[in-house]
Amino acid sequence: MLQDYFWVFSFILIGLFFAFMATVVPYLIAPKGIGKDKTTTYESGVPTIGSAWIRFNVLYYLYALIFLVFDVEVVFLFPVALAFRSIEGMGVLLEVIVFVAILTLALIYAMRKGVFQWRQ
Questions:
Q1: What share of the chain is helix, strand, coil (3-state, %, to 5)?
Q2: 3-class DSSP state of 42
């Protein structure tokens, strides 16, 4: 019985080893001192101009939400498309059509609200 789970346990151990190494090795080899650049606001080397507390346009947030909507769509539809031939019945096709219709309505709503028009 235990032989059946050998590969499962070995992959778990390998995964734990990589997670452990990814957290411990950088801690061991990272520089310990805090330099002058570490205390600045940004570490890119470019000095800041003005205050770091500025308002961002809400459109950036809306673009991120639209991206997430279509990202979730791809994550859902790709496995369904791969397994579609082996699934019997029209129920799956109806579910996919309803899902795409809801996302299409969300896209139309975003277009009517002017999300895709770049404004300053």
A1: 65, 0, 35
A2: coil
Angle between helices 58-83 and 91-113 (to 10 degrees): 160
* Spatial distance between the Cα atoms of 39 and 116, rounded to a whole number of angstroms: 38
Residue 89: in which H helix or E strand, if any?
A: none
Residue 45 Rama label (left phi>0; alpha psi -120 to 50; beta): left
Fold of 2-113: Methane Monooxygenase Hydroxylase; Chain G, domain 1 (1.20.58)
pLDDT at residue number 90:
79
Report domain extents, the chain. Answer: 2-113
- Tens of pLDDT along 60-69? 777 788 888 7
Place of tokens 């809400």: 58
